[in-house]
Design a protein that fits this description.
The chain is built from six helices and no strands. The longest helix is centred in the last third of the chain and has 25 residues, at 143-167. α4 runs antiparallel to α5 (113-133) and α5 (113-133) packs antiparallel against α6. It has 180 residues and is mainly α. The mean pLDDT is 88. It folds into two domains: 20-78, no CATH class; 92-167, no CATH class. Keywords: Amino-acid transport, Membrane, Mitochondrion, One-carbon metabolism, Transmembrane, Transmembrane helix, Transport. It is found in: Mitochondrion membrane.
Length: 180
C-alpha cells in the first residue's frame, strides 16, 4: 500500500453535489450527531490530519476514507474561517438532537403563557448560538449588532407565539340549561 496522493480535494464535499444522493450523503455526514461525542483529542487529531494534508504532508498510513472522516470531523467542530473550535451546541451536528428537544418541548408545553415565553426564548437563544457559531468569519460583528438581532428575533418569536396562542383558545362551553 502506497502513500495517499495529495490530489484529493478536501476543500469540497466528498460526494457529487449535483445529485440528490450526493447532497444527502454530505448533509447526513455534516449533521451526524455522533460527532458531538468525540473527545477533544479526537478533534485535535482530525484537525492535525486535515491541516497537515492541506500543507502537503500526508499522515503516515492514513487511508482515503480516514482522510475524509478526519475532514468531516474537523469541519463539524472548527469554524471554517477562524479555525476556532465551535461551542458544542452551535455545531451543525447538534441540530437534530437540539431541535427535536426544543420543538418537542414547544409542542408539549403550549398551554400556559410563561412556558410559551420560556420555550420561545430557548429556541431563539439556540438559533442565535447556531447563527453566531456559523457566521462568516471575515465580517466583524459588534456586540450591539448581536444584541439587537437577538432581542429583535426573540421579541418577534414570543409575540408571534403568544398571538397565535390567543387565536387558538376555544370558546367557553355555554352555561345554563341546554335546549333539549
Amino acid at each position: 500500500m502506497g502513500e495517499l496522493p495529495l490530489d484529493i480535494n478536501i476543500q469540497e464535499p466528498r460526494w457529487d453535489q449535483s445529485t440528490f444522493l450526493g447532497r444527502a450523503r454530505h448533509f447526513f455526514t455534516v449533521t451526524d450527531p455522533r460527532n458531538l461525542l468525540l473527545s477533544a483529542a479526537q478533534l485535535e487529531t482530525s484537525r492535525n490530519i486535515v491541516q497537515n494534508y492541506r500543507a502537503g504532508v500526508v499522515t503516515p498510513g492514513i487511508t482515503e476514507d480516514q482522510l475524509w472522516r478526519a475532514k468531516y470531523v474537523y469541519d463539524s467542530a472548527f469554524h471554517p474561517d477562524t479555525g476556532e473550535k465551535v461551542v458544542l451546541i452551535g455545531r451543525m451536528s447538534a441540530q437534530v438532537p437540539m431541535n427535536m428537544t426544543i420543538t418537542g418541548c414547544m409542542l408539549t408545553f403550549y398551554r400556559k403563557t410563561p412556558t410559551v415565553v420560556f420555550w420561545q426564548w430557548v429556541n431563539q437563544s439556540f438559533n442565535a448560538i447556531v447563527n453566531y457559531s456559523n457566521r462568516s468569519g471575515d465580517t466583524p460583528i459588534t456586540v450591539r449588532q448581536l444584541g439587537t438581532a437577538y432581542v429583535s428575533a426573540t421579541t418577534g418569536a414570543v409575540a408571534t407565539a403568544l398571538g397565535l396562542k390567543s387565536l387558538t383558545k376555544s370558546p367557553s362551553p355555554p352555561h345554563g340549561p341546554q335546549g333539549h
